[in-house]
Design brief:
mainly alpha; 2 domains
C-alpha cells in the first residue's frame, strides 16, 4: 500500500490539495480509508480532520455500489467484460459465508477489520449481489467504516504506542 500511496503523491497528489488527496484516496477500492489515514498522517493533517475526510471519502461510493453493482455486473457480462464480472461475483461469494453467519453485525465487522480484501467496497459488493436490505447494509457498512477508522487511527497516528509507553 505504501508504494501506491507514494505513486499517488508523486503523480495525482502534486496537483491537488493534501485534504482532497486524502478524501479521494479514501474512495479507491482496496486502499480505502486505511490508505487515506496513512496518507493524512504523512501529510501532517490533524487526526480529527483526517478521520472526517477518510470516513466521508470511504462512504461516498457505498450507495452507488449497493444500488448499482448488480446491474453493472450483468451489463459487464453482456459486453465482453465477463472475466471482470466473474471475478467480482466470485469475490462476493467467497466472502458471503463470513457475513451470512452474523448478518448485519457480520457485515459491520467484515468492513471494520482492516485486512486485505475487506472494507466498504467488498462489503457493499457482497450486500448488493446477495440482495441484503439496503438500509440495514448501509448502516452496517457505515458502522464498519467507523470501526476501521478507529483501528487505523490508533495505528496511523501512533496512539497505540503512546498508550503502551
Amino acid at each position: 500500500m505504501e508504494g501506491f500511496i507514494a505513486w499517488w503523491m508523486a503523480s495525482i497528489g502534486r496537483y491537488i490539495s493534501p485534504k482532497l488527496s486524502v478524501f479521494l484516496l479514501s474512495m479507491i477500492p482496496v486502499v480505502e480509508e486505511r490508505g487515506g489515514l496513512l496518507l493524512a498522517r504523512m501529510l501532517n493533517i490533524p487526526m480529527w480532520e483526517a478521520i472526517g475526510l477518510c470516513v466521508l471519502g470511504n462512504i461516498v461510493p457505498v450507495p452507488f455500489i449497493l444500488i448499482g453493482m448488480e446491474k453493472l455486473i450483468h451489463w459487464m457480462s453482456d459486453h465482453h467484460l465477463s472475466k471482470i464480472a466473474e471475478f467480482l461475483t466470485n469475490k462476493a461469494e467467497k466472502n458471503k459465508p463470513k457475513i451470512d453467519k452474523y448478518g448485519a453485525l457480520g457485515l459491520m465487522i467484515f468492513v471494520g477489520i482492516p485486512l486485505p480484501g475487506t472494507g466498504a467496497w467488498t462489503g457493499s459488493l457482497v450486500a448488493s449481489l446477495f440482495d441484503m436490505d439496503v438500509k440495514k447494509s448501509s448502516i452496517s457498512i457505515l458502522l464498519g467504516i467507523l470501526l476501521a477508522a478507529i483501528i487505523m487511527t490508533i495505528i496511523s497516528y501512533g496512539l497505540l504506542g503512546r498508550m503502551i509507553s
